[in-house]
Design brief:
The chain is of the alpha/beta class. Helix content is 50%, strand content 7%. It has a five-stranded parallel sheet with strand order 2-3-4-1-5, sandwiched between helices. Strand 2, helix 4 and strand 3 form a beta-alpha-beta unit. The radius of gyration is 22 Å and the shape is globular. It starts with 17 loop residues before the first helix and ends in a 6-residue tail after the last helix. Bound molecules: zinc ion (ZN). The site of zinc ion has 9 residues, from helix 3.
Length: 343
């Protein structure tokens, strides 16, 4: 079973996507749209939502020129349109575990699907996200069909990390680049989503200004979790807890949050060291402790952990033990910071 298999059909274009929507639409209306599109850009800015709107504009029976889909016709209301296929991480029905990659069998299925006649619409559409999660064999299988795409079939690849996509796949796609919107646009949008005003700035900082990710931080109480994680990290510096114990507790937390928290600490420390004490940092409520650490550690030490962290973000997607990854990185953190006197 694919997660998000029933993507919401009542989509709309986000305020910061209006220009890019017009550009894509103009290309489509002039029949210049490529059969493979690559929606690239940072995580948390609404690429999937945009792709879903694009899908509806192709499948809607009213075939509206400028809208993402009428939201009213039976095709827009279908939870699973027969001319649409969504490819993402699968959930094992027995164990409930989410896969860490997009496998060749999933790509074979969409190749079969792409060769069939469409059921209701003039077009068929396949969304693959995140495209960089395809295994090498999945990516090679997809490449073959992208080289000779069947008439009327559109592939939309969504990628947060295009550097992890094969160059040949990229060369077969029309690139649509998404960017982080202006901070004011994000703030206005978060307010319109009824996000508590006081949470907007801290959540935007944590999400590196990506508005959808910032909304997730506020909606899912990630921000409270983040505060606990930062306290965990700083208590290791303080020598008041064993890194091994923290590593075990982190296993119970949604997997990208602990590394995101550590990343935010490192990013703050590098800023405090390079720009100075006035820097705009993410973990502002811990400014004094972070400044203290920044004064005591070397850039080299910080970059060693940063390298390890970037490697860990990659390893998390493989079968390497998550506990081992956390233990390694927290031990390194302890060795770097345990001489710092916390006042
Ligand atoms: Zn419709």
């Amino acid at each position: 079973m694919d997660i998000n298999n029933t993507i919401n059909n009542s989509e709309f274009i986000l305020p910061w996507q209006e220009l890019i929507w017009q550009q894509v639409l103009n290309t489509k209306n002039q029949n210049h749209i490529a059969h493979a599109l690559l929606f690239a850009g940072p995580l948390g800015i609404g690429k999937l939502q945009f792709a879903t709107a694009f899908k509806s504009s192709l499948l809607c029976s009213k075939n509206s020129i400028s809208e993402p889909g009428c939201g009213q016709c039976r095709f827009c209301k279908m939870s699973e349109h027969p001319d649409f296929h969504n490819v993402t991480f699968e959930v094992d029905e027995k164990t409930g575990k989410v896969s860490k990659s997009i496998k060749i069998d999933q790509i074979r299925k969409i190749i079969e699907f792409s060769l069939l006649h469409s059921h209701y619409s003039k077009a068929k559409i396949i969304i693959i996200h995140p495209a960089e999660a395809m295994t090498v064999s999945a990516s090679n299988a997809l490449l073959k069909i992208l080289e000779e795409p069947p008439e009327g079939t559109y592939f939309v690849l969504i990628s947060n990390e295009t550097h992890n996509l094969s160059a040949t796949i990229k060369s077969r796609c029309q690139l649509v680049q998404f960017k982080i919107p202006d901070a004011n646009v994000s703030r206005q949008w978060l307010l319109s989503q009824s996000i508590n005003k006081e949470l907007i700035e801290p959540c935007l900082k944590l999400a590196f200004n990506a508005p959808i990710a910032a909304k997730d931080y506020a909606d899912k109480k990630y921000i409270e979790q983040h505060i606990i994680l930062i306290n965990n990290i700083l208590s290791i510096t303080n020598n008041s807890v064993d890194p091994m114990d923290i590593a075990s507790t982190w296993l119970k937390i949604e997997s990208n949050l602990p590394l995101q928290a550590l990343y935010s600490c490192l990013s703050d420390l590098i800023l405090l060291k390079s720009v100075g004490s006035e820097s705009e940092i993410i973990n502002d409520s811990n400014r004094a402790i972070l400044q203290n650490i920044a004064n005591s550690v070397s850039f080299t030490g910080l970059y060693v952990i940063l390298d390890k962290l970037l490697l860990a973000k990659h390893q998390i997607k493989s079968n390497i033990s998550l506990l081992g990854i956390y233990e390694d990185i927290l031990n390194l953190w302890q060795r770097l910071t345990n001489k710092v006197k916390i006042i």
